[in-house]
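Appendix B, example 12.
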Amino acid sequence: MIILITSHANLADGLVSAFEMIAGHKNYIQALSLNTSGVNEFRRRLLAFLNNAPSPVLILADVKGGTPYNEAYKYYLAHSNKCSLVSGVNLPMLLEIGTNIENCTDLDDVKAKTKAIGQQGIEIAEDIVEDNDDLDF
């Protein structure tokens, strides 16, 4: 399975760079950004990537309703057997899925796990620490 991160500007490249700093380079994680070359060029690069992908693709988009998501969604609607689409990509999501996806083949299972992990990666710091809490710094 391949992970394709889509975003506005350089967010996708930055997430891949951060992932590689922490977990090392993985050939199956790629980035595709919407840049100043415009929507048509983004669409062309996205379709070329997805149409030539040798295995199923998990697409992680930055924002639901944004151009990278919308273009990926159009492809998903016509090819749901070849890809899944999840919005709200974040680094905890990418780290967990990216280090455990090599042997996954079920897109439905992967997208459900991806959503759960992404949500679990969002926390609000609390002012009060319980006595039994271990803090790792």
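The longest helix spans residues 107-120. The two ends are 34 Å apart (CA to CA).
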